[in-house]
Amino acid sequence: MKGKIRIILTVLIIMCISAGTLFAGGQKDEIADDGKLKVAILLPGVITDQGWNTLAYNALKAMEKNLDAEIAYTENTPASDYEELFRGYANAGFDVIMGHGFEFGDAAKLVAKEFQDKYFIVTSTMISQEPNLASFVINDIEAGFVEGYIAAMLTKTGKIGTIGGMEIPPIANQQKGFLAGAKYYNPDVEVNAVYTGSFHDIAKGKNMAKAMIETGVDILTPNADETSLGVVEAAREVGVTIVAGGGSDLGEKNGDIVLLSLMQDYGRVFTLLVQSTLDGSFKAEPLVMGLAEGVTSLSSYRGNITLTTDQKVKIDTLVADLISGKVDPMDYTD
Predict the structure, then answer these.
(1) 8-39: per-residue pLDDT in tens?
(2) How far apart are CA 96 and CA 94, in angstroms?
(3) What is the pTM of this model?
(4) Residue 31 C-alpha from the chain's centroid
(5) For 246, phi and psi rounded to 5 degrees?
(6) In this structure, is residue 222 part of a structural domain?
(7) How does pLDDT run across 190-224, given as a tens digit for each residue?
(8) What gap in Å lies between CA 297 and CA 171, rounded to an integer?
(9) 3-state SS assignment for residue 193
(10) Is residue 55 assigned to a domain?
(11) Are 118 and 160 members of one domain?
(12) Same domain, 115 and 233
């Protein structure tokens, strides 16, 4: 019965898109054939997770402003619907259709062959397909390296932890970089790295964070989207400090406990890639972007720790060395 219901709902969604009407996040947007650039994105989660999906939604809104684009999105996209929704947006006249996460790659490659007058972009993967499919990844190892370095600098117990969502390439690379950055600062620091297995289980994030804290971990780095909010809850209860991963500024709404966030400017990347489809410079290739490209950066300092001038100088120096290539995180990873 559930399978039949899902099929019926999927068909209804596609019919709505094809008819020129899209229901996104409970809101109705009329899709007019007015010659405007139209960009749509499929999201694996909800736009309110203060993490991966919020990041993409904000980037989509940036394109709406910077490129005067008409935008649409689908939240909590089931894997079974990837192809249908890619096709639905293409049939509805969208010029650029994006999938936010490596898991959208196979469906994008398949549908892109059918709509070679449209452009397809997938994040967090290194796939490409001529003439109309590109991808990009954030340099997650580099980002994790900075997070681990700062966490190792701040710990008083000598124990730090990073909590990822699912064990997928971007999260695994962040944790790999985190370990390398921590050991780069202090070879003797103890690093606890775990996965919750979910990007949406707030309770599990809280429980795993509490278990870490009970072992003496006093600096936590969550990178688990909505699950990270549970890590924040656990940290707040005992006053443990968070150095956040995940790309968005987790400290914007949790400034009491989040010292800083390693942010990712997906708005910049989205705008550059979509602009390339307009000016003819689009290339069906994978891109890697990080600190040197201005795509990753540190947020302002907040939280319950006051950094010394020496600590701030060390952080600034590390970032400069990473940008210049003086320090290569790959030299310190296994």
Answers:
(1) 334 444 444 433 334 343 333 444 456 899 99
(2) 6
(3) 0.78
(4) 28
(5) 95, -15
(6) yes
(7) 999 999 999 989 999 999 999 999 999 999 999 99
(8) 18
(9) strand
(10) yes
(11) no
(12) no
